[in-house]
Amino acid sequence: MKFIIFAALFAVAAASSYKAAEYAPKYEAPKYEEVTYAPQPYSFGYDVQDKESYNDFEHNEKSDYNVVTGSYRVALPDGRTQIVNYKADKDGYTADVKFEGEAKYPEEPAYKPAYSAPAYSAPSYPAPAYPAPAYKAPAYPKY
User: Using CA atoms, how far apart are residues 80 and 102, in angstroms rounded to an integer?
Assistant: First the structure.
């Protein structure tokens, strides 16, 4: 018992002499510098014509330091071709959209089955027959 009291007294004395750190670690937020690049002039263009997949489109674009101009052409599913000429500058985006050709919609569906669907009669199932229960009700004694 004396040992426990002595240990408790020693723990209290040691705790009173404990001194917390006078400084806290300081973590500074990393400093990020926004990278800015000088405007670069560019020019590109591509053209795709794949008759197997019916893809037919083209895109051309060029830019100086301030103005982006370009055009693209797309074959639409209705048979027309959409042509867009655009310009983007400090005042915004301006597009001139034109359509070439006439829209064609088929009168009949593109798919006709090679044969008519077979006529099956609806299946007939007999009505279920459930037999009467085969147990006797229990007889309870009267009190």
Answer: 6
